[in-house]
Amino acid sequence: MTFPGGTSVSRLTVYTGACADGLEGGTPHLHTASTEAYVVVGGHGALQTLDVNGLRETELGPGSTVWFTPGTIHRAVNRAGNGGGLEVVVVMSNAGLPEAGDAVMTFPPEVVADPARYREAAALPAVGVEEAVARRRELAVAGFLRLAEGGPEAVRRFYDSAVALVRPKAAGWRETWEATVAAQTRRTAEVLEALERGDGAHLLESALMESPPQERWGMCGHLRAHDVADPVVHTPR
């Protein structure tokens, strides 16, 4: 029942409202285990990325398709003067891991190095969530600017803190991966072996699934996420 390729998919409307550096956009962060792809379906903007090789900026417009691997600190930016309104379909590898804490925001080093302070800064309350989203974005942008100024060593120290933050979750992530990506890979191997034998019995198990969107406050913007782990199955079994 896993979404094709063991991925997850969501639709993103990048945040507006200027940050302290004058740019509109999302909360800078990285993923420790998953690769992320942007397929731009509307608006204009840019993707700022930072790693040990430095800061770079990639322009985005309708039809742009970019993806970035674990460790790539990224920030989606609206180009207000060029129409803004950046709309993206986001495809993530390792379905389930990004939602399980794979992302680490670029809070200043004294926050990222302290798990309790990090959790407090990252948390979104039930009441006043919009204000909390803005606060954590500003904190992450401040840390992002410090990382960009600090060079490769600052990025490496951030990586060390990020790994320490997610390390307690890794065993649980393996269970998620086994049940989604690894299970689908094994299933594909079984299907190929069956086809080599001329066996098409698996075709009788065909099914149609649907995952209605769920509105969420994401790191880069407003998300319309789709639950790919528990879809609605329309085909009777």
What key phrases describe this protein's structure?
237 residues; alpha+beta; Jelly Rolls; six-stranded antiparallel sheet; four-stranded antiparallel sheet; 14 strands; 32% helix; globular
Descriptive notes:
- This protein has four helices and 14 strands.
- It is an alpha+beta fold and 237 residues long.
- The strands form four sheets. The chain has a six-stranded antiparallel beta sheet with strand order 7-4-9-1-13-12. It has a four-stranded antiparallel beta sheet with strand order 2-8-5-6, with helices on one face. Strands 3-10 form a two-stranded antiparallel sheet.
- β12 and β13 form a beta hairpin.
- The two termini are 13 Å apart.
- The model has no long low-confidence stretch (mean pLDDT 93).
